[in-house]
Design goal:
single chain; 8-stranded mixed β-sheet; alpha/beta; 4-stranded mixed β-sheet; binds N,N-dimethyl-L-histidine
Protein backbone atom coordinates (compact mmCIF):
# COMPACT_ATOMS: atom_id res chain seq x y z
CA UNK A 1 0.00 0.00 0.00
CA UNK A 2 1.31 3.47 -0.87
CA UNK A 3 1.65 5.87 2.07
CA UNK A 4 0.32 9.40 1.61
CA UNK A 5 3.78 10.86 1.16
CA UNK A 6 6.51 8.61 -0.28
CA UNK A 7 8.94 10.19 2.13
CA UNK A 8 7.00 8.77 5.04
CA UNK A 9 7.58 5.19 3.99
CA UNK A 10 10.85 5.37 5.89
CA UNK A 11 8.80 5.73 9.05
CA UNK A 12 7.26 2.28 8.72
CA UNK A 13 8.05 0.12 11.67
CA UNK A 14 7.26 -3.57 11.54
CA UNK A 15 8.40 -4.28 15.06
CA UNK A 16 5.60 -2.86 17.17
CA UNK A 17 2.40 -3.59 15.25
CA UNK A 18 -0.47 -3.97 17.67
CA UNK A 19 -2.59 -7.10 17.81
CA UNK A 20 -5.21 -5.90 15.31
CA UNK A 21 -2.87 -4.73 12.56
CA UNK A 22 -4.27 -7.47 10.31
CA UNK A 23 -7.93 -6.61 10.91
CA UNK A 24 -10.28 -5.42 8.14
CA UNK A 25 -10.54 -2.11 9.99
CA UNK A 26 -6.74 -1.60 9.91
CA UNK A 27 -6.54 -2.54 6.23
CA UNK A 28 -9.53 -0.41 5.20
CA UNK A 29 -8.40 2.61 7.23
CA UNK A 30 -4.89 2.47 5.80
CA UNK A 31 -6.27 2.05 2.27
CA UNK A 32 -8.80 4.84 2.83
CA UNK A 33 -6.13 7.24 4.05
CA UNK A 34 -3.93 6.38 1.09
CA UNK A 35 -6.52 7.31 -1.57
CA UNK A 36 -7.69 10.74 -2.68
CA UNK A 37 -10.17 11.89 -1.58
CA UNK A 38 -9.64 10.06 1.69
CA UNK A 39 -12.60 7.94 2.77
CA UNK A 40 -13.61 5.03 4.99
CA UNK A 41 -16.76 2.91 5.09
CA UNK A 42 -19.36 4.07 7.66
CA UNK A 43 -19.68 0.46 8.80
CA UNK A 44 -16.71 1.14 11.11
CA UNK A 45 -18.79 3.61 13.16
CA UNK A 46 -20.59 0.77 14.86
CA UNK A 47 -18.37 -0.65 17.60
CA UNK A 48 -19.96 -0.79 21.07
CA UNK A 49 -19.32 2.91 21.78
CA UNK A 50 -20.46 3.94 18.27
CA UNK A 51 -23.65 1.87 18.48
CA UNK A 52 -24.49 3.50 21.82
CA UNK A 53 -23.90 6.96 20.30
CA UNK A 54 -26.11 6.03 17.33
CA UNK A 55 -28.89 5.04 19.73
CA UNK A 56 -28.55 8.51 21.29
CA UNK A 57 -28.70 10.14 17.83
CA UNK A 58 -31.98 8.31 17.15
CA UNK A 59 -33.51 9.98 20.20
CA UNK A 60 -32.28 13.53 19.41
CA UNK A 61 -34.91 16.19 18.72
CA UNK A 62 -33.13 17.21 15.49
CA UNK A 63 -32.83 13.64 14.15
CA UNK A 64 -36.31 13.20 12.66
CA UNK A 65 -35.81 9.89 10.73
CA UNK A 66 -36.25 7.42 13.59
CA UNK A 67 -39.34 8.88 15.20
CA UNK A 68 -40.93 9.63 11.82
CA UNK A 69 -40.37 6.08 10.55
CA UNK A 70 -41.60 4.54 13.82
CA UNK A 71 -44.76 6.64 13.64
CA UNK A 72 -45.31 5.50 10.03
CA UNK A 73 -44.81 1.84 10.96
CA UNK A 74 -47.15 2.16 13.93
CA UNK A 75 -49.81 4.01 11.95
CA UNK A 76 -49.77 1.62 9.00
CA UNK A 77 -48.99 -1.66 10.78
CA UNK A 78 -52.51 -2.97 10.05
CA UNK A 79 -52.18 -2.36 6.29
CA UNK A 80 -48.67 -3.80 6.27
CA UNK A 81 -49.87 -6.86 8.15
CA UNK A 82 -52.73 -7.34 5.65
CA UNK A 83 -50.25 -7.19 2.75
CA UNK A 84 -47.90 -9.61 4.52
CA UNK A 85 -50.70 -12.10 5.18
CA UNK A 86 -50.79 -14.82 7.82
CA UNK A 87 -47.72 -16.72 9.03
CA UNK A 88 -45.25 -14.37 7.30
CA UNK A 89 -41.54 -14.58 8.09
CA UNK A 90 -39.64 -11.33 8.63
CA UNK A 91 -36.09 -11.20 7.29
CA UNK A 92 -34.34 -8.12 8.69
CA UNK A 93 -31.23 -6.86 6.90
CA UNK A 94 -29.05 -5.87 9.87
CA UNK A 95 -29.97 -6.76 13.44
CA UNK A 96 -31.33 -3.30 13.83
CA UNK A 97 -33.85 -1.85 16.15
CA UNK A 98 -35.91 -4.46 17.95
CA UNK A 99 -38.35 -1.68 18.66
CA UNK A 100 -39.09 -1.25 14.94
CA UNK A 101 -39.54 -4.95 14.22
CA UNK A 102 -41.79 -5.29 17.26
CA UNK A 103 -44.11 -2.69 15.73
CA UNK A 104 -44.55 -5.08 12.80
CA UNK A 105 -44.57 -8.37 14.69
CA UNK A 106 -47.16 -7.15 17.17
CA UNK A 107 -49.54 -6.27 14.32
CA UNK A 108 -48.96 -9.36 12.17
CA UNK A 109 -51.18 -12.41 11.95
CA UNK A 110 -49.26 -15.23 13.72
CA UNK A 111 -45.81 -14.41 12.28
CA UNK A 112 -43.97 -17.65 11.56
CA UNK A 113 -40.46 -16.41 12.21
CA UNK A 114 -37.90 -13.66 12.42
CA UNK A 115 -34.52 -13.96 10.72
CA UNK A 116 -32.18 -11.06 11.52
CA UNK A 117 -29.09 -11.03 9.26
CA UNK A 118 -26.02 -9.31 10.60
CA UNK A 119 -22.30 -9.56 10.20
CA UNK A 120 -21.82 -9.20 13.96
CA UNK A 121 -22.94 -12.40 15.67
CA UNK A 122 -22.50 -10.85 19.11
CA UNK A 123 -24.87 -7.94 18.56
CA UNK A 124 -27.42 -10.22 16.93
CA UNK A 125 -27.32 -12.92 19.59
CA UNK A 126 -28.12 -10.32 22.24
CA UNK A 127 -30.96 -8.91 20.12
CA UNK A 128 -32.32 -12.40 19.34
CA UNK A 129 -32.24 -13.34 23.03
CA UNK A 130 -34.20 -10.24 23.96
CA UNK A 131 -36.80 -10.88 21.25
CA UNK A 132 -37.25 -14.54 22.24
CA UNK A 133 -37.96 -13.39 25.77
CA UNK A 134 -40.50 -10.84 24.60
CA UNK A 135 -42.15 -13.15 22.01
CA UNK A 136 -41.72 -16.72 23.31
CA UNK A 137 -43.79 -18.26 20.48
CA UNK A 138 -41.79 -16.65 17.71
CA UNK A 139 -39.17 -18.72 15.88
CA UNK A 140 -36.05 -16.48 15.94
CA UNK A 141 -33.27 -17.64 13.63
CA UNK A 142 -30.28 -15.28 13.49
CA UNK A 143 -28.12 -15.52 10.36
CA UNK A 144 -24.50 -14.36 10.63
CA UNK A 145 -23.72 -13.02 7.15
CA UNK A 146 -22.88 -9.91 5.18
CA UNK A 147 -26.23 -8.98 3.70
CA UNK A 148 -24.62 -6.89 0.96
CA UNK A 149 -23.35 -10.17 -0.55
CA UNK A 150 -25.25 -13.05 -2.13
CA UNK A 151 -27.19 -14.79 0.67
CA UNK A 152 -28.38 -18.31 1.28
CA UNK A 153 -31.16 -18.23 3.85
CA UNK A 154 -32.47 -21.25 5.74
CA UNK A 155 -35.54 -22.85 4.11
CA UNK A 156 -38.87 -21.44 5.28
CA UNK A 157 -40.57 -23.37 8.07
CA UNK A 158 -43.41 -25.69 6.98
CA UNK A 159 -46.73 -23.85 6.86
CA UNK A 160 -45.19 -20.41 6.76
CA UNK A 161 -46.51 -17.62 4.54
CA UNK A 162 -44.53 -15.11 2.51
CA UNK A 163 -41.10 -13.77 3.38
CA UNK A 164 -41.09 -10.09 4.20
CA UNK A 165 -37.71 -8.38 4.04
CA UNK A 166 -37.32 -5.41 6.40
CA UNK A 167 -34.66 -2.74 5.83
CA UNK A 168 -35.62 0.29 7.92
CA UNK A 169 -33.82 3.47 8.95
CA UNK A 170 -32.77 4.57 5.44
CA UNK A 171 -29.58 2.58 5.87
CA UNK A 172 -29.86 2.15 2.09
CA UNK A 173 -28.87 5.83 1.92
CA UNK A 174 -25.45 5.00 3.35
CA UNK A 175 -24.63 2.97 0.23
CA UNK A 176 -23.31 4.52 -2.96
CA UNK A 177 -26.16 4.58 -5.53
CA UNK A 178 -24.73 1.61 -7.47
CA UNK A 179 -24.31 -0.36 -4.21
CA UNK A 180 -27.89 0.47 -3.22
CA UNK A 181 -29.21 -0.88 -6.50
CA UNK A 182 -27.00 -3.97 -6.22
CA UNK A 183 -28.32 -4.58 -2.70
CA UNK A 184 -31.92 -4.29 -3.96
CA UNK A 185 -31.18 -6.72 -6.80
CA UNK A 186 -29.82 -9.28 -4.30
CA UNK A 187 -32.78 -8.68 -1.96
CA UNK A 188 -35.26 -9.20 -4.83
CA UNK A 189 -33.69 -12.62 -5.46
CA UNK A 190 -33.52 -13.71 -1.82
CA UNK A 191 -37.11 -12.59 -1.19
CA UNK A 192 -38.63 -14.22 -4.33
CA UNK A 193 -42.34 -14.73 -3.80
CA UNK A 194 -42.35 -12.21 -0.95
CA UNK A 195 -41.76 -8.49 -0.50
CA UNK A 196 -39.45 -5.88 0.99
CA UNK A 197 -40.48 -3.16 3.44
CA UNK A 198 -37.92 -0.40 2.97
CA UNK A 199 -37.41 2.85 4.89
CA UNK A 200 -36.03 5.74 2.79
CA UNK A 201 -35.28 9.26 3.95
CA UNK A 202 -36.59 11.96 1.62
CA UNK A 203 -35.02 15.01 -0.01
CA UNK A 204 -36.06 18.08 2.00
CA UNK A 205 -35.12 21.58 3.16
CA UNK A 206 -31.32 21.51 3.61
CA UNK A 207 -31.71 23.44 6.90
CA UNK A 208 -33.54 20.46 8.44
CA UNK A 209 -30.84 18.10 7.18
CA UNK A 210 -28.11 20.37 8.49
CA UNK A 211 -29.69 20.39 11.97
CA UNK A 212 -30.17 16.59 11.96
CA UNK A 213 -26.47 15.96 11.29
CA UNK A 214 -25.13 18.86 13.39
CA UNK A 215 -27.13 18.47 16.60
CA UNK A 216 -26.78 21.03 19.35
CA UNK A 217 -25.62 18.48 21.92
CA UNK A 218 -22.76 17.32 19.70
CA UNK A 219 -23.75 13.64 19.73
CA UNK A 220 -23.32 13.29 15.96
CA UNK A 221 -19.89 14.93 16.23
CA UNK A 222 -18.95 12.42 18.95
CA UNK A 223 -20.29 9.57 16.77
CA UNK A 224 -18.12 10.73 13.86
CA UNK A 225 -15.02 11.27 16.02
CA UNK A 226 -15.51 7.85 17.64
CA UNK A 227 -14.12 6.40 14.42
CA UNK A 228 -10.72 7.89 15.31
CA UNK A 229 -11.12 6.93 18.97
CA UNK A 230 -11.86 3.37 17.82
CA UNK A 231 -8.67 3.37 15.72
CA UNK A 232 -6.74 4.46 18.81
CA UNK A 233 -8.38 1.76 20.96
CA UNK A 234 -8.25 -1.12 18.52
CA UNK A 235 -5.26 -0.38 16.33
CA UNK A 236 -3.04 1.55 18.74
CA UNK A 237 -3.26 4.56 16.37
CA UNK A 238 -2.34 7.97 17.77
CA UNK A 239 -5.07 10.27 16.45
CA UNK A 240 -5.28 13.45 18.53
CA UNK A 241 -9.06 13.78 18.77
CA UNK A 242 -8.82 17.47 19.64
CA UNK A 243 -7.07 18.11 16.28
CA UNK A 244 -10.00 16.86 14.13
CA UNK A 245 -13.50 18.31 13.86
CA UNK A 246 -16.83 16.97 12.68
CA UNK A 247 -18.21 18.42 9.45
CA UNK A 248 -21.59 17.54 7.95
CA UNK A 249 -23.26 19.31 5.03
CA UNK A 250 -25.84 18.69 2.35
CA UNK A 251 -24.36 18.15 -1.11
CA UNK A 252 -27.39 19.08 -3.22
CA UNK A 253 -26.23 17.84 -6.65
CA UNK A 254 -25.71 14.37 -5.14
CA UNK A 255 -28.78 14.56 -2.87
CA UNK A 256 -26.74 13.46 0.11
CA UNK A 257 -25.49 14.58 3.49
CA UNK A 258 -21.75 14.04 3.70
CA UNK A 259 -19.88 13.60 6.96
CA UNK A 260 -16.17 14.31 7.17
CA UNK A 261 -13.48 14.60 9.83
CA UNK A 262 -11.36 17.68 9.22
CA UNK A 263 -7.76 18.02 10.30
CA UNK A 264 -7.34 21.30 12.20
CA UNK A 265 -3.60 21.51 11.61
CA UNK A 266 -0.70 19.87 9.83
CA UNK A 267 -0.12 16.63 11.61
CA UNK A 268 1.06 13.09 11.25
CA UNK A 269 -0.75 10.00 12.53
CA UNK A 270 0.63 6.54 13.02
CA UNK A 271 -1.59 3.55 12.26
CA UNK A 272 -0.03 0.15 12.86
CA UNK A 273 3.42 1.43 12.07
CA UNK A 274 2.43 3.37 8.95
CA UNK A 275 2.59 7.17 9.07
CA UNK A 276 -0.04 9.38 7.43
CA UNK A 277 0.40 13.12 7.02
CA UNK A 278 -2.55 15.53 7.10
CA UNK A 279 -2.49 19.12 5.95
CA UNK A 280 -4.60 21.69 7.75
CA UNK A 281 -8.16 21.42 6.38
CA UNK A 282 -7.65 17.95 4.85
CA UNK A 283 -10.62 15.69 5.39
CA UNK A 284 -11.45 12.04 5.84
CA UNK A 285 -14.87 11.36 4.30
CA UNK A 286 -16.69 9.05 6.72
CA UNK A 287 -20.30 8.80 5.49
CA UNK A 288 -22.76 9.47 2.69
CA UNK A 289 -26.39 9.67 3.68
CA UNK A 290 -28.36 9.82 0.45
CA UNK A 291 -31.83 11.30 0.42
CA UNK A 292 -34.42 10.09 -2.07
CA UNK A 293 -37.52 11.18 -3.88
CA UNK A 294 -40.40 8.71 -3.75
CA UNK A 295 -40.33 8.32 -7.54
CA UNK A 296 -36.56 7.93 -7.55
CA UNK A 297 -36.70 5.13 -4.98
CA UNK A 298 -39.52 3.35 -6.82
CA UNK A 299 -37.61 3.60 -10.09
CA UNK A 300 -34.46 2.14 -8.50
CA UNK A 301 -36.49 -0.70 -6.93
CA UNK A 302 -38.12 -1.43 -10.31
CA UNK A 303 -34.71 -1.57 -12.03
CA UNK A 304 -33.63 -4.06 -9.35
CA UNK A 305 -36.57 -6.38 -10.12
CA UNK A 306 -39.22 -5.28 -7.58
CA UNK A 307 -42.77 -4.22 -8.38
CA UNK A 308 -43.26 -1.02 -6.31
CA UNK A 309 -46.43 -1.12 -4.21
CA UNK A 310 -47.90 1.24 -1.59
CA UNK A 311 -45.73 4.02 -0.10
CA UNK A 312 -46.44 5.58 3.26
CA UNK A 313 -45.18 9.02 4.18
CA UNK A 314 -45.79 11.60 6.91
CA UNK A 315 -47.68 14.86 6.29
CA UNK A 316 -44.41 16.84 6.10
CA UNK A 317 -42.96 14.27 3.67
CA UNK A 318 -39.83 13.82 5.75
CA UNK A 319 -39.56 10.03 5.42
CA UNK A 320 -41.04 7.21 3.35
CA UNK A 321 -41.76 3.51 3.87
CA UNK A 322 -42.09 1.46 0.67
CA UNK A 323 -43.77 -1.88 0.03
CA UNK A 324 -41.82 -3.51 -2.79
CA UNK A 325 -43.14 -6.76 -4.23
CA UNK A 326 -40.37 -9.23 -5.09
CA UNK A 327 -40.60 -11.32 -8.27
CA UNK A 328 -42.77 -14.44 -8.07
CA UNK A 329 -41.12 -17.75 -7.17
C1 LIG B 1 -27.69 4.58 9.87
N1 LIG B 1 -27.87 5.73 9.00
C2 LIG B 1 -29.08 5.60 8.19
C3 LIG B 1 -27.74 7.04 9.66
C4 LIG B 1 -27.97 8.19 8.65
O1 LIG B 1 -28.74 9.08 8.96
O2 LIG B 1 -27.40 8.15 7.57
C5 LIG B 1 -26.38 7.19 10.32
C6 LIG B 1 -26.15 8.56 10.87
N2 LIG B 1 -25.12 9.32 10.63
C7 LIG B 1 -25.22 10.45 11.28
N3 LIG B 1 -26.34 10.45 11.95
C8 LIG B 1 -26.96 9.26 11.73
Amino acid sequence: MTPLHPALSANRSHATHPRHADSDFARDLQAGLSRRPRSISPKYFYDTAGSALFDRICALPEYYPTRTECALLARHAGEISALAGPRAEIVEFGAGSLYKVRLLLDAMDRPAGYLPIDISGEHMTAAAHELRRACPHLEVQPVVADYTQRLLLPASAAGSGQRLGFFPGSTIGNFAPEEAERFLRLAAQVLRGGALLLGADLVKDPALLHAAYNDAEGVTAAFNLNLLARANRELGADFDLSAFTHSAFYNAPYQRVEMHLVSQRRQQVDICGEAFAFNEGETLHTEHSHKFTIDGMRAMAARAGFRPGPVWTDPERLFSVHWLQAPAD
